[in-house]
Amino acid sequence: MKVIFLFAFVLLSPLTAHGARRVGDSVTISNTKFMIWGGAPTGSMPKGASVAHDGKHLYVSNFGKIGRDNISVFKADPLTFERYIHYKGNSIESYVSRDNKTLYSTNMYGDYFDVIDLATYKLKKRVRIYGGFPKLILLNKTGDKAFVSLWAASSFAVIDLKSYNYNIFRTRQRNPRGLALNHDESLLYLANNGSKNFTVVETSSLVKGKKKHVGAKPTLKHYAIGRGPRHVVASKDGKTMYFSVMGGSRIFVVDTATQKTTKIIHVGQKPKTIFLSFDGKFLYTANYTGHSLSIIDTSTYKVKELPLPVVRTSGLVVRPDDKFIYITGWCTDDIWAVQRINAGETAQTPMGNNYNKFRRKGCRKCKLKFLDCEPIRSKRKK
């Protein structure tokens, strides 16, 4: 077991320059400090992350690892590496069951929805969703149903988690990615990355069709939004949906009663994953080409950006007690813990690892290919 604690002392100073990216750096918003606590290595290209509902474990999907070290398991204490989970294919995104006994993960190789037993860390079931390139997973409140966006099929799947039967529903919108349910779960929201819009589906219309695994035509509507919508999360009261939109580096605030945009918030460059704090006070964004975390006060819409010691932030998740935010570094093969320190609280010590301890280095100043981590090299004239 590898414990990620090295620094018993670190200078706890506020961020003095936008380029500073070290343990102890912090920003303050609404009398709340957000401080880089420390980081740890993961597998190759960590994409998504999920936390158990009891807050004890953290799971990181190593997209670039095929057939081995697919998922890194950490104790969320806040960041102690425990083990890897191995199986055929890879892991894109994951979601923990409501009882913390099962981990669900999407798999690019074979279009699988994988079911992992967290008592044994073994793959116990695999559901093949043909031709869909499954991406994000969302469970309903009771935890007996999973909604899965199908990036390559302009559709989404609904999986019964007791029988593992599923149906696919077409939206005919390109590259659906983020998923969210409204407060009473009567509406499903999808962010369509390739169509500059989002889709709202009436969940009562999601019924079995005449063909196997093909659902009946759903009742839905599409609403225009900015270029490159990525993820969506619901507010605590269900009256608002927040969409990350990569074009223009913005968060769109949408009223669920009218589906109209009521506010546009500018954040760090190219926001991908977003996550709402469990108390609903802050919205967090992982800024892909900003290599940073943006923190939004949901009552005032004020924003602060915390530069991180990564190249290309990707996955983002929050511990259920709201004490730590976890962000993955796509090109640096690592995950970082940011501590939320409310007024009157102090930093957890000893602090974690700093950036220079990790195997893989990246270049934030280089012009990189968008989907990977290789610099774009200019061709020399002959």
Count of individual domains:
1
Q: Report the sheet with the most strands, covering strand number, pairing sense and barrel closure.
A: 5 strands, antiparallel
Order of helices and strands: EEEEEEEEEEEEEEEEEEEEEEEEEEEEEE
What strand order characterises the main sheet?
Answer: 1-7-6-5-4
Radius of gyration computed on alpha carbons = 20 Å
**Name of the CATH superfamily:** YVTN repeat-like/Quinoprotein amine dehydrogenase
Helix content: under 10%
**Stretches with pLDDT under 50, minimum 5 residues:** 1-13
Q: What's the number of helices?
A: 0
Beta-strand percentage range: over 45%
Written account of the structure:
By secondary structure, this protein is mainly β. The protein has a single domain, classed as 7 Propeller (Methylamine Dehydrogenase, Chain H). The chain is built from no helices and 30 strands. It has strands at 2-3, 26-29, 32-41, 46-51, 57-62, 71-75, 80-85, 94-96, 102-107, 112-117, 122-128, 134-139, 145-150, 155-160, 166-170, 176-181, 187-192, 197-202, 220-224, 229-234, 240-245, 250-255, 260-266, 271-276, 282-287, 292-297, 303-307, 313-318, 324-329, 334-341. The strands form seven sheets. A five-stranded antiparallel sheet has the order 1-7-6-5-4, with no helix packed on it. Strands 2-3-30-29-28 form a five-stranded antiparallel sheet, with no helix packed on it. The chain starts with a strand and ends in a 41-residue tail after the last strand. The model is unreliable at 1-13 (pLDDT under 50).
